[in-house]
Description:
InterPro entries: Alkylbase_DNA_Glycosylase/TA, DNA_glycosylase. The chain is 41% helix and 12% strand.
Amino acid sequence: MRSGRTRQWVPDGPLDLGLTLGPLRRGPGDPAFQVALDGAVWRASRTPAGPGTLRVAAAGGGVIAAEAWGPGADWLLDRLPALLGADDNPSAFTARHRLVHEAHRRHPGLRLTRTGLVLESLIPSILEQKVTSDEAYRAWRLLLQRHGEPAPGPAGTLRVMPGPRSWALIPSWEWHRAGVDNKRAGTIIRAARVAARLEEATAMAAGEAFRRLQAVQGIGPWTAAETLQRATGDPDAITVGDLHLPNIVGYALTGERRSDDAVMLSLLAPYAGQRHRAARYILLGGRIPPRRGPRFTPGNIAAL
């Protein structure tokens, strides 16, 4: 393995790499995220300094060992603690329900990641709008394979996502080939054209960051929350407008099989300021409502 720049870091408490970095993975075939057989997490990112590859692994004794390659290596290593939850404050969370308390007890290493990169989380979130996860993951995979670039260093098949200009120049037939309809493609193109303004959201207060993202046509509360959960580690960025989350939260906390955003927000009101973290623990609690009715059917834009 060709050597890159290295850094070691010791978190101030338990850290579960899988739970902390897992939300950054867009499906099992994500070209920008891989988990090696030894448990190391590999990520390819386009940083302000350029493309970079990061490998993160537990080195024993509570030490986290990281290695990075490419023009973005120093940027990635400088922000390693934030990526692994150093800016997070889990002590601010108090469990208000038995299921949440048990999940909190069983997963002390959960931290909320902060990548500091908006477009990296925004574009796959846009791809996930109103489609199945499999459709969105396929689109992300195909677009990175065709329009991204090989990740620096010994990263194997990892790909770095395109830069803003490249996203904006993807022709319509390439979006169509990836299964992305005109509405989502148009939203991505508009976001790419104002990428510098959107990246400023990482330095803003939560409310201002939400407004900045939603100023782009096609980005609503769902997409903004999914993005800021990852880019800024916002512990309160609860996802509204989701097809499944209200039912999961409602069933976990009340036993009722059907819920909506209003009911979910009411149930999560005791977690004000920590609603996203509470939802993570509810999902980890594993109390999922039984399925009824047909699954959501994937679309076929080729037939449109």
